[in-house]
Amino acid sequence: MTAERPLSAPPPGQAVADPAPDRHVRNVVARSGTSFFMGMRVLPPDRRRAMYAIYAFCREVDDIADEPGQPDDKRAALAEWREEIARLYAGRPARPTARALLQPVKQFALPQEEFLAVIAGMETDTAQAVRMQGVDDLMDYCRKVAVAVGRLSVCAFGVPARPGPQIADALGNAFQLTNILRDMKKDADMNRLYLPGDLLKAHGVAADAPPHSVLSDPGLAGVCAELVTMARAQYAEGDRLLAQTGQRKMRAAVIMKEVYRRTLDRLEARGWQRLDDPVGLSRAQKVMLALRYGLL
Fold it and tell me: Which runs of E-coded beta strand occur in the chain?
């Protein structure tokens, strides 16, 4: 990893964040290779630090759910994070990421319930087999693992109480539906299937079949087409709300939106029979999007 530039100094009168936790969360983001890192670079320093800390929290609890281990051990580790969030809001966090969140929680009024929602979503992923019985279950999962992150983010961005949460809902749902369509093969390898059982049945696919059998079924294309339609409706709603509120404070989210929407375009163009063919944008393409939409 290349040497990092020091974080910018906070404005006069603003409390100085503890530099060690700040370095920790920045390193978590940088190591992840996520397009999130590029989008966050357009934020003012204090808001950028808040977003790095939010992302690091999400990365750490997601790793608990994804890494090998027994479900009971994973749930215990997530329960410890729930206790750490309680300590954070009591003003005495212990973990580096929670310590990095302490100032943003105070400065930007980050809602405690949204951190707990993310943990609840990760608990879903600790099961030996993950299935969604219907569209309602899928959207509840999206609410926990993606919309909650969006609602934390709009607070850090400084977007007004309305339409901030509504933008977070639309883009959070759009991003997570795109992720599900992109990661079906990888999820199946982990015995996870996020395609809703009611949609599978409607397209003649056995909802209780093993995930890889579902992915090889001819009816898969129809299920995916419906999820693409759902995702595009959410992107369109995000566009509508962003047009109403002005996009400058949401530049980071706009960059991510454009990356994710283009990923969805490529997934649809590839089709649903060659799931081993990776789909994504190159770093150069992401940089171009960051330049284009970071200057709004």
Answer: 130-132, 192-196
Classify residue 18 as left (phi > 0), alpha (psi -120 to 50) or beta. beta
- Indicate the pTM of the whole model: 0.88
Whole-angstrom distance, CA of residue 275 vs CA of residue 296? 35
List the CATH number of the domain containing 83: 1.10.600.10
Provide the residue type at 242 as one letter. Answer: L
123 within some domain:
no
The one-letter code for the residue type at 4 is: E
Average pLDDT for residues 20-31, to the nearest whole number? 85
User: 100 and 164: one domain?
Assistant: no
Among the listed residues 8, 52, 18, the one whose alpha carbon sits nearest the alpha carbon of residue 34: 52
- Considering the domain architecture, whether residues 211 and 287 belong to the same structural domain is answered as yes
pLDDT in tens, 26-58: 888 878 766 566 667 778 899 999 999 999 999
Q: Report angle CA 282, 286, 289 to the nearest 5 degrees.
A: 140
Cα separation, 141 vs 17, whole angstroms: 33
Q: Which residues contact 72 (CB under 8 A, 6 or more apart)?
A: none
Domain span at 26: 18-112
- Give 175: exposed, middle or buried? Use CB within 10 Å, 0-12, 13-18, 19+: buried
Q: Determine contact, residues 155/110, Cβ cutoff 8 Å.
A: yes
